[in-house]
Amino acid sequence: MADQGAVKYGRVPTRVLLYGEPEGWGYTVVDQHEGEQHFPLSGPGVSWQPPGRAERDPEPPWWRHRLGETAETLRDHIGRALTDQTFLELGAEAQIAWFAVDDPTSWEGLVTLGDPDPARFPGKVPPFVVTLEPGRGAVLPNAHLLFSTLASDAWTTLNAVSEQCGTPAPKASFLCGYTDHRSVRIGRGGLHVSTLCLEDDTERIAEIHGSLGPGWSGNPELRLRLDGIDLLNEPADDVVALFRGLGHDVAPKGRYGFHVPAMGLTLHRPDAATAGNGGGPANPEERFTGASLSFPSTPAFWFLNR
Fold first, then answer.
1. Which of 48, 57, 89, 294 could form a disulfide with 264 if both were Cys (CB 3.0 to 4.6 A apart)?
2. Quick one: average pLDDT of 212-227?
3. CA distance 273 to 28
4. Is residue 270 a contact partner of residue 278, using CB atoms and an 8 Å limit?
5. How buried is 216 (Cβ within 10 angstroms: 0-12 exposed, 13-18 middle, 19+ buried)?
6. Residues facing residue 21 across a β-bridge
7. According to the UniProt record, where is the region Disordered (predicted)?
């Protein structure tokens, strides 16, 4: 997402308006003096009819649900952007209570300012560390997600993570090639688990993925580690160099990723739309935004971890 401009110093935001039209979405921040600042929103799914085109065919039954999902994502983005700005300029966090004006494309939010999140200050809140173990799975602070784990146990673990982190319950979504896929938020990052049905008719973990966008990591901060390397919190070039220094074959994968075949590890760089470099050379401080650890190729592998 991209916006233009910033809330001026001394202005206290009181309301936010989110509106969607076929040409795109945008939002307006209203301050205590009724001053307004308008911000366009860009990104996948935010426009559904290019300017100048004739009115689209009748909407399919699923279209309003799709718009609702887009609006939910945009409300989350606006909340993050606004609270980051108020912390920067006012030293306070902004909470937005949203109300539907014309669901799903028109929303109004009332802004309340509060004390800064302790996690804004280094050392105040311990990170949520997920340690990836190639060929085995992931170890969490109070649990584990091994490739031998049944899907039902994995979903129980994700529910426990959401309760521990104070985030919404895990969400299920469709991911091509997998039996099931669920995600839980950790601060501003995410832990995602995909499952497959095996030849013994059991459904077990096939891939574990961690994601973290740029900027403040939220509370708690997600740290994804492997062999002592912070995969998403160190410059991407340094992470690749460290793996190569350990003797691993690190191969480019697509336009924005790297693959370590021996580990089943894939590292994801931000694409040109989110990297902020206009498609130019990568920023040397750019970090990976995601890392995936895949199920080993041996079909009967899960027996080894029982």
1. 294
2. 94
3. 23
4. no
5. middle
6. 24
7. 269-292
pLDDT in tens, 36-88: 999 998 776 666 665 455 566 677 888 888 899 999 999 999 999 999 999 99
The amino acid at 28: T
- 225 touches 242 (CB < 8 A): no
- With a CB cutoff of 8 Å and minimum separation 6, the contacts of 63 are none
**DSSP annotation of 120:** G
Residues 102 and 107: their CA atoms lie apart, in Å, by: 7
* Side chain identity, residue 79: G
Among 135, 156, 155, 162, smallest CA distance to 146 is for 135
Kindly provide the b/e burial profile for residues 263-283, where b requires at least 16 CB atoms within 10 angstroms of the residue's own CB: bbbbbbbbeeeebeeeeeeee
Q: Which of 51-55, 256-260, 263-267 has the weakest average pLDDT?
A: 51-55
Angle at 69 between CA 63 and CA 71, to 5 degrees: 105
Do 101 and 202 form a contact (C-beta atoms < 8 A)? no
Whether this prediction's pTM lies above 0.90 is answered by: no
| Residue 140 backbone phi and psi in degrees, to 5 | -105, 170
d(CA 249, CA 212): 24
Residues linked to residue 144 through DSSP beta bridges, in sequence order: 139
Q: Would you place residue 274 in the very low, low, confident or very high pLDDT band (cuts 50, 70, 90)? A: very low
In this prediction, residues 95-113 reach a mean pLDDT of 97
In this prediction, residue 255 has a pLDDT band, given cuts at 50, 70 and 90, of confident
159/153 Cα distance (integer angstroms)? 10
Q: For the chain, count helices (H), then strands (E).
A: 4, 18
Output the CA–CA distances (angstroms, integers) from residue 27 to 16, 103, 184, 212, 243, in the order listed: 7, 15, 27, 24, 43
